[in-house]
Amino acid sequence: QPLPVQALPATALALKVAATLAVGGFDGDRFPFYFEDVDLCLRLRERGYRLLLVPEARAIHRGAATAGTGTRFSLYHATRGQVALALGSGGGGLRGAGLAALFSAASLSRPGEDPLASRALGVLLGIRDGLANQCTEHEMHGS
C-alpha cells in the first residue's frame, strides 16, 4: 500500500504536471541545488495535494555527479538550502534555521573531497546566504 509522506526526494519522484504547475514548479531561484524537491513537496501539501511513497518502487541514483561528495560547493548548497527551507515554509523560523545550521556544521565531521577549511567556509557561507535567502554568484557556479 502507498504510504502518505511529508516530502519525497526528486531522485525518484513522479509528479502530476497540472499539480506541479499549479504551485509554480521547482523554484530554481531559491533552491538552485538541493532542497528544491522538499520545497516543492511542501508547497504541494500546502495546496492540499497528497504525497505517497510506493514501497515496491525502485530507482537507482548515482549521486554527487555534479557537486561532488564533501566539497565546499556541495556543503554550501546543502547548508544554504536547509537554512532557507527551515526559515520559511513552516520550518520553525530562526530556531529551525539554527538547527539546520547546526546539522550542516556537524556534517564537517565526515571526510570530504575538499580540505576541511574549504568545506567549513562553504558551510559558513551557506548559513549566511540561507538566512539572507540569497545565493551568491561565486558559490552558485562553484568557482
Describe this structure in words.
The protein has 143 residues and is mainly alpha-helical. Helix content is 48%, strand content 3%. The chain is built from six helices and two strands. Helix 3 packs antiparallel against helix 4 and helix 3 packs parallel to helix 5. The termini are far apart.
What distinguishing features does this structure have?
143 residues; mainly alpha; two-stranded antiparallel sheet; 6 helices; 2 strands
Work out the oligomeric state of the chains in this entry.
single chain
Question: What summary fits the major beta sheet?
Answer: 2 strands, antiparallel
Q: Reading side by side through the largest sheet, how are the strands ordered?
A: 1-2
Question: What's the total helix number?
Answer: 6
Tell me the fraction of residues in β-strands, as a range: under 5%
Shape: globular
DSSP summary, beta strand count: 2
Low-confidence stretches: none
Determine the structural class based on helices, strands and strand pairing: mainly alpha
SSE pattern? EHHEHHHH
What Rg is obtained from the alpha carbons, in whole angstroms?
16 Å
Distance between the termini: 46 Å
The average pLDDT score comes to: 86
Q: Helicity range of the residues?
A: 40-55%
Quick overview of this protein structure:
The protein has 143 residues and is mainly α. The chain is built from 6 helices and 2 strands, in the order E-H-H-E-H-H-H-H.
